[in-house]
Design goal:
Helix content is 51%, strand content 17%. It contains 9 helices and 8 strands. With 224 residues, the protein is of the alpha/beta class. The protein is globular, with a radius of gyration of 17 Å. It has a 5-stranded parallel β-sheet, with helices on both faces. It binds 2'-deoxycytidine-5'-monophosphate (DC). 2'-deoxycytidine-5'-monophosphate binds next to helix 2, helix 4 and helix 8.
Length: 224
């Protein structure tokens, strides 16, 4: 059976995982959230109090880490050395640490291999920062999904308020801009629109509009 690969890249908070998950369900593809793999590695380092500058400890730790993606009840779960750590991965500080560890070559190498292996076996929609540029350069469809930083901050603010968290919209915007800079300015596999990616600015689109756009384009490109 032919395997199809769709890459969705873009900055934090653009809605990649929400739309990728929905589009994957409509196409019958597996959704692979590569950010969660970086988050799992960051969680492991945080638990051992390893800092992003400590290359020798990072090297030693990487040799003993196994990150696996599995699916339970249709949801992706992340197993870190067999432990389901999914519930810990969405915390703000884990995301920030994932961004801080992700520029490091050994960290990226470890995950690149795993991500390519997943995409060879099954049709996937994979989202992240470097999927179209580095992980799956021959993907059947590449989307660069972005949204205005203020819109992204506003959405995050609303989400947190709905969850009853105390937060400040200006602080959220600052955090988003810092994360954009860190992800775009790193040396290895920075966040960048691949030359052959379709740019989709979702600032003023609904989730359903974005999903339909991606699904229609995917069907056309993959002949489905
Ligand atoms: O998409 P996310 O917020 O879960 O990603 C967390 C961090 O992981 C992100 O700020 C940078 C890093 N990351 C990466 O470098 N490459 C990817 N393909 C996915 C995530």
């Amino acid at each position: 059976m032919k395997v199809y690969n769709i890459a969705i890249d873009g900055p934090a908070g653009a809605g990649k995982s929400t739309v990728a998950k929905m589009a994957a369900a409509r196409l019958g593809f597996v959704y692979v959230d590569t950010g969660s793999m970086y988050r799992a590695l960051a969680l492991y380092f945080m638990r051992l109090s390893i800092k992003p500058g400590d290359m020798s400890a990072i090297g030693d730790a990487l040799a003993g880490i196994d990150v696996t993606l599995s699916h339970r009840g249709g949801e992706q779960v992340v197993l870190l050395n067999g432990e389901d750590v999914s519930q810990f991965l969405r915390a703000q500080e884990v995301g920030d640490m994932a961004s801080a560890f992700s520029p490091l070559a050994p960290v990226r190498e470890k995950l690149l291999f795993l991500q390519r292996e997943l995409a060879e076996r099954t049709s996937v929609i994979m989202d992240g920062r470097d999927i179209g540029t580095t992980v799956l350069p021959n993907a059947d469809l590449k989307i660069y999904l972005t949204a205005d930083a203020k819109v992204r901050a506003g959405r995050r603010y609303k989400e947190l308020l709905e969850r009853g968290a105390e937060c400040d919209e200006e602080e959220i915007l600052k955090g988003i801009l810092a994360r954009d800079a860190q992800d775009m300015e790193r040396e290895i596999s920075p966040l960048r629109q691949a030359q052959d990616a379709v740019l989709l600015d979702a600032s003023y689109m609904t989730v359903d509009e974005v999903v339909s756009f991606i699904v229609n384009l995917a069907r056309e490109r993959c002949g489905l």
